[in-house]
């Protein structure tokens, strides 16, 4: 296998450099083993209000620390799980970990909605709905504490099975969030008919904000579209104060990104929640009141 260097200097495995399909098969076997051995963990990244910096929830992001290969990014193994028919095993694991974390935070006095990313196959059939419904009951959680993020690319496909899956989850009271918005190809008609509750603006649009009026206009149009559909807009991948301020001025509702907080382990996230509940909501640069 090939290791590449990340900014942090940590070796990262890349399957895309692995042209040998035998190696891919090995990785898949190792992923199945990692699921069996419970080696996947979650990190949590806050979504905060752009108006007053209050916490809106956290997104759970799956992590695989491979004993030999090092950190394998989700963009490498999620597609592998999807193609090989083992996605449901991963999603089951992630949903159960997220629900247990919501329950644990509640016992510690923190009421934090947690968002989990799901893929197309999860939404077809009854498996995810059954799991969510029994998991919520098992932990005695209000359904609104769980959010599910679905990429726009996935919902654009719009099969009857997918629509039924989304309707069932919506009817259960789970919050649905449209992820990576602006990079899929959903029609406006499709958007209007979707039972989604939140729209997440893809990071590519946020990172172009400094490029000028056209890029700003696109983000404004997305925010206005979300509001026209009765949903809040959350910007992803906010890395700078300039982006934060521009988004706030455009009327965007929430933000997520390294400028606010990078993804954290469960332990770090608990400390983060504790520190915030006893101190100012966020560093002052983040909590100036809007004009
Ligand atoms: P996503 O759902 O759009 O998640 C946001 C990604 O942006 C995460 O990458 C996060 O770590 C990263 N990020 C957060 N803030 C910043 C920032 O300020 N700048 C930049 N450049 N990046 C930022 P990550 O964790 O590598 O996940 C990548 C994708 O993998 C996710 O994109 C999601 O589609 C998928 N994914 C992650 N966890 C799961 C999971 O449990 N299940 C499924 N089905 N997909 C998952
Ligand atoms: Mg997401
Ligand atoms: Mg709903
Ligand atoms: Mg996204």
UniProtKB/TrEMBL annotation:
- The residues covered by the EAL domain are 24-277
Q: What is this protein called?
A: EAL domain-containing protein
What species is this protein from? Jatrophihabitans lederbergiae
Instruction: Give the taxonomic lineage as stored in the record.
Output: Bacteria, Bacillati, Actinomycetota, Actinomycetes, Jatrophihabitantales
Q: Which residues of the full protein are shown?
A: 390 to 680 of 682
């Amino acid at each position: 296998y090939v290791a590449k260097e990340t900014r942090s200097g940590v070796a990262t495995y890349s399957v895309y450099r692995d042209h040998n399909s035998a190696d891919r098969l090995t990785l898949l076997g190792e992923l199945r083993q990692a699921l069996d051995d419970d080696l996947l963990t979650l990190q949590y990244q806050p979504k905060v209000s752009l108006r007053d910096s209050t916490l809106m929830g956290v997104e759970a992001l799956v992590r695989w620390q491979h004993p030999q290969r090092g950190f394998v990014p989700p963009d490498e193994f999620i597609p592998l799980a999807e193609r090989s028919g083992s996605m449901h095993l991963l999603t089951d694991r992630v949903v159960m970990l997220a629900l247990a974390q919501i329950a644990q935070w509640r016992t510690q006095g923190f009421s934090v909605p947690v968002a989990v990313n799901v893929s197309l196959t999860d939404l077809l059939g009854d498996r995810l709905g059954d799991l969510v419904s029994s998991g919520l009951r098992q932990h005695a959680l209000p359904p609104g504490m769980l959010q599910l993020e679905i990429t726009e690319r996935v919902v654009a496909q719009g099969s009857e099975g997918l629509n039924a899956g989304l309707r069932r989850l919506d009817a259960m009271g789970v919050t649905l969030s449209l992820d990576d918005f602006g990079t899929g190809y959903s029609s406006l008609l499709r958007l209007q008919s979707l039972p989604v509750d939140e729209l997440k603006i893809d990071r590519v649009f946020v990172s172009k904000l400094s490029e000028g009026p056209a890029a700003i206009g696109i983000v404004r149009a997305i925010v206005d579209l979300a509001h026209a559909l009765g949903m809040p807009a959350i910007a992803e991948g906010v890395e700078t104060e300039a982006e934060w301020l521009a988004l706030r001025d455009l009327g965007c509702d929430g933000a997520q990104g390294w400028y606010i907080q990078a993804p954290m382990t469960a332990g770090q996230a608990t400390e983060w929640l504790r520190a915030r509940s006893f101190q100012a909501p966020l560093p002052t640069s983040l909590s100036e009141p809007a004009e």
